[in-house]
């Protein structure tokens, strides 16, 4: 660690203000440390985001959010223009609170077996920590985010404490599907979610708006700007926008300085005793690679050559169908229920696991366009569309992807953002293991639809659930990983990484709760080591 006699600008610099950075900053600031948060994006107001979304003609994941002119984001086609695979385009936000502004809020825990995938099934990688080590921090994370769930059903992840709130009630359609599937021995259960089922932590209970993604209009769903505000109230300093582009390293391999640019292109720097890098998996790798020097030509924290490698995400498919009875999608949150199968078993030796969800978002835009194109009778078209809207259902699944060295983030040698910083280029291919999982589980869903006397309409598949993970993975060996079990860089004693980029493997669970748990664990380590 740096010399205690040196005067620093701050004790800890946290780069990024999503859920990882927000929780680390909150914990450290509350303990009396001097914390500075550097965020590449701007601060959004919920009222402005709601207005922008209502006025948008193209209601995408990023429609509610003012896009920064000083940095390139995934909302700009230029961000992915150098892709090795143009079909892989995860969405994330740059702004105070990060991507928790436009997430669905689903917060399952990892299964114990997700930490031991290679030991149990001979696939992927084991984590260097086990479920039991993280379980107390899962409890803290659920309390911090405000998770509503069914405490009588642990979904295969043993619990030491109940959820902070009871589960969001199932929708009418979910209950009907559950009743139909129960005759075949298939159980439908509540999904845990960081969405208030009652007033909690100064935020209101869910009112049933159906726009969870891209925006909860009333703040019933957790977003990390809440914890950024708590960190600032405890004494932390927030600089936004502040685009970090390089770190300096001393002769003892300690990070001494973070260099950043403001929106006008002006350059600044800040010194600290410790640095926590809490960007998402793509931007974390990008920043480390940009910090290359004569002593570290391959980038910061990269003696292993693993920075940027082993990028993972959840491939997702959604099967649409119609039922004999009305399901009335669009009433309530976009997804509150799951099917309790597919996440674990000996089958994982052969094909990927799946986490199912029942979709409640009413999305019939494509059907409307097709009907209008093929049917010129507006009255008939309206009746057909009404029937589809009332009787339509959705079952989807997120499929695990194994770590692969060739799925990676690198720096583009030609393209730069408005501040002159190199953009990332991404190579990403779905493994045969995951492809077999998609094939198996999509066929399984079609069987379930037939068992309910439903009629399958179509199945759509995407490479990304917007869950990029990996790229700075955790491990015991400095030759094979970027950080140790405490998320501390193997190469630089005062550099720590928070976020999904440290995942050695990702299972099927949405990553945010595990990111939050790891971040709280890291904060504990920083305070007590």
Q: Remind me, CATH topology? A: FAD/NAD(P)-binding domain
What is the domain total for the residues? 1
Helix content: 10-25%
Over the alpha carbons, how many angstroms does the gyration radius reach? 23 Å
Order of helices and strands: EHEHHHHEHEEEEHEEEHHEEEHEEH
Give the CA-CA distance, first to last residue. Answer: 12 Å
Large-scale geometry:
globular
Gross CATH architecture: 3-Layer(bba) Sandwich
Q: Say which CATH homologous superfamily is assigned.
A: FAD/NAD(P)-binding domain
The description of the largest β-sheet is: 7 strands, mixed
- Secondary structure tally, helices: 11
Mean pLDDT: 94
Number of strands: 15
Percent strand: 15-25%
Q: What CATH first level would be assigned?
A: Alpha Beta
Specify the structural class: alpha/beta
The parts where pLDDT drops under 50 for at least 5 residues are: none
What does this protein look like?
This protein has 529 residues and is an alpha/beta fold. The protein contains eleven helices and 15 strands. The chain has a single domain, classed as FAD/NAD(P)-binding domain (3-Layer(bba) Sandwich). Strands 1, 2, 4, 5, 6, 7 and 15 form a seven-stranded mixed sheet that branches. Strands 10-11-8-14 form a four-stranded antiparallel sheet. The mean pLDDT is 94.
In a few lines, what is going on in this structure?
With 529 residues, this protein is an alpha/beta fold. It is 25% helix and 17% strand.
Name the features.
single chain; 529 residues; alpha/beta; FAD/NAD(P)-binding domain; seven-stranded mixed sheet; globular
């Amino acid at each position: 660690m740096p010399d205690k006699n040196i005067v620093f600008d701050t004790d800890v610099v946290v780069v990024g203000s999503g859920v990882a950075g927000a929780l680390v900053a909150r914990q450290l600031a509350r303990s009396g440390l001097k914390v500075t948060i550097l965020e590449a994006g701007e601060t959004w107001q919920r009222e402005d985001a709601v207005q922008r979304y209502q006025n948008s003609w193209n209601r995408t994941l990023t429609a509610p959010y003012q896009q920064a002119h000083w940095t390139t984001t995934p909302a700009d086609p230029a961000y992915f223009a150098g892709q090795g695979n143009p079909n892989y385009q995860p969405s994330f936000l740059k702004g105070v609170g990060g991507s928790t502004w436009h997430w669905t809020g689903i917060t399952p825990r990892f299964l114990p077996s997700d930490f031991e995938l290679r030991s149990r099934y001979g696939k992927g990688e084991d984590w260097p920590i086990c479920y039991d080590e993280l379980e107390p921090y899962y409890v803290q994370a659920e309390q911090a985010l405000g998770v509503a769930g069914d405490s009588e059903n642990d979904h295969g992840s043993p619990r030491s404490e109940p959820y902070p709130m009871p589960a969001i009630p199932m929708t009418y359609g979910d209950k009907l599907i559950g009743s139909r599937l129960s005759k075949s021995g298939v159980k439908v259960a509540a999904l845990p979610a960081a969405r208030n089922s009652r007033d909690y932590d100064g935020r209101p209970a869910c009112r049933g708006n159906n726009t969870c993604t891209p925006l909860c209009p009333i703040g019933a769903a957790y977003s990390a700007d809440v914890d950024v505000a708590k960190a600032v109230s405890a004494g932390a300093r927030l600089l936004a926008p502040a685009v970090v582009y390089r770190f300096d390293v001393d002769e003892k391999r300690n990070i001494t300085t973070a260099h950043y640019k403001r929106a006008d292109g002006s350059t600044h720097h800040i010194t600290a005793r410790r640095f926590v890098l809490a960007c998402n998996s793509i931007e974390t790798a990008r920043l480390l690679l940009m910090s290359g020097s004569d002593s570290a030509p391959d980038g910061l924290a990269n003696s292993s050559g693993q920075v940027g490698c082993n990028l993972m995400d959840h491939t997702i498919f959604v099967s649409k169908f119609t039922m004999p009875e009305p399901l009335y999608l669009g009433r309530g949150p976009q997804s509150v229920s799951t099917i309790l199968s597919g996440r674990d078993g000996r089958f994982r030796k052969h094909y990927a696991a799946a986490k199912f969800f029942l979709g409640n978002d009413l999305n019939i835009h494509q059907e409307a366009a097709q009907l209008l194109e093929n049917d010129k009778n507006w009255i008939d078209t309206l009746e057909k569309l009404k029937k589809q809207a009332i009787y339509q259902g959705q079952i989807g699944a997120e499929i695990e992807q194994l770590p692969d060295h060739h799925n990676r983030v690198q720096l583009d040698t030609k393209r730069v953002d408005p501040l002159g910083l190199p953009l990332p280029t991404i190579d990403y291919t779905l493994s045969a293991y995951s492809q077999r999982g998609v094939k198996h589980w999509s066929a399984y869903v079609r069987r379930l639809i037939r068992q309910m006397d439903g009629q399958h309409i179509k199945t759509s598949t995407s490479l990304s659930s917007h869950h990029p993970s990996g790229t700075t993975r955790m491990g015991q060996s400095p030759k094979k990983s970027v950080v140790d079990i405490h998320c501390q860089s193997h190469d630089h004693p005062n550099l720590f990484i928070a976020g999904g980029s440290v995942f050695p493997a990702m299972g099927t669970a949405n990553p945010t709760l595990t990111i939050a748990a790891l971040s709280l664990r890291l904060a504990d380590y920083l305070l007590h080591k």
